[in-house]
Design brief:
The chain is 27% helix and 28% strand. By secondary structure, the chain is α+β, with helices and mostly antiparallel strands.
Length: 127
């Protein structure tokens, strides 16, 4: 996934400092700036509108996300949430335990991108 940021420096600080990620590659060639963050394994979830409504209702209390929403697995949801809030995230909905057993929180980055942070139950960490 590629994210175009309205404020590049703010977004770099938000994702790098907020999630503790180090840039894997940096580009600054006079034609613009970019960086690549290694986010581990990635999956693409494709929902129909009904499923998107269901997920938003569980995580945010209403249909709120757009066509794209980040869902990032973290080892410590509360720590990651606090770090992102300190770097400009907006809390959309407080943490919840989902019907499938994950611990989730819905945030919004400074450009408005919806982000779900989720932590797997302890017995599934590392799977």
């Amino acid at each position: 996934m590629a994210l175009t940021a309205s404020d590049y420096e703010r977004s770099v600080k938000f994702y790098c400092d907020g999630l503790g990620l180090e840039p894997e590659q940096l580009w600054n060639n006079g034609q613009g700036r970019a960086l690549i963050l290694n986010m581990g394994n990635a999956t693409l979830e494709i929902f129909d509108e009904t499923q998107a409504q269901t997920i938003d209702q569980i995580e945010a209390g209403q249909r709120i996300s757009g066509q794209i929403r980040f869902a990032l697995q973290v080892p410590d949801l509360n720590l990651a949430m606090e770090q992102l809030l300190a770097h400009g995230a907006t809390l959309v909905h407080p943490p919840i335990i989902t019907p499938w057993g994950d611990y989730n929180v819905r945030l919004q980055d400074p450009d408005g991108m919806q982000i779900t942070l989720f932590q797997k139950p302890d017995n599934e960490q590392g799977k």
